[in-house]
Amino acid sequence: MTPRRSTPPAGQHPDLTPHPQADADGREPDEEVCRQVLRILALIGDKWSILVIGQLRDRTLRFSELHRAVTGISQRMLTLTLRQLERDGLLTRTVHPSVPPRVDYALTPLGTTLLDSVAGLAEWATTHRQEINHNRRHYDTTHPPRTRP
């Protein structure tokens, strides 16, 4: 992969600079598009990201509210997830000047566009969970664990 310019021209966002291997029409090579899509899907496919996006579907939440709502997530993982979602433009972080500081998180219009997809995945998982659990049990009983030599 060809390295990207370290600094874009003035006024141009670094992630929006044309790829050095772009053709005359400005299209990136399929390989680079695939890499970018895989990076985005890795974020969106992360269980914590999906759960955070789902919790923010109806209203703005404070960090502590999100932490209570997303069962099993550590404070550190929630912080990292929120930062990445903010970096990608899927949510906003608003700090209110108070003591202690109040921080609110809300979906952006771009983040809101994910709700139908996330809801569809959740519905599919709910509908097929028993069948998948049955298949897992069947597989586990018919395929004993492999032992190392």
The percent range for helix content is 40-55%
Hey, roughly how much beta strand do the residues contain? 5-15%
Q: What structural category characterises the helix and strand content? A: mainly alpha
Reading the helices and strands in chain order gives HHEHHEEHH
Question: What distance separates the N and C termini?
Answer: 39 Å
Radius of gyration over all CA atoms, rounded: 21 Å
Low-confidence stretches: 1-14
Mean pLDDT figure: 83
Which strands sit side by side, in order, in the main sheet? 1-3-2
**Biggest sheet descriptor:** 3 strands, antiparallel
Number of strands: 3
Coarse shape? extended
Describe this structure in words.
By secondary structure, the chain is mostly helical. It is about 50% helix and about 10% strand. The chain has a three-stranded antiparallel β-sheet with strand order 1-3-2. The model is unreliable at about 1-15 (pLDDT under 50).
Which descriptors apply to this entry?
mainly alpha; disordered N terminus; 149 residues
Task: Please summarize what this structure is.
With about 150 residues, the protein is mainly alpha-helical. About 50% of the residues lie in helices and about 10% in strands.
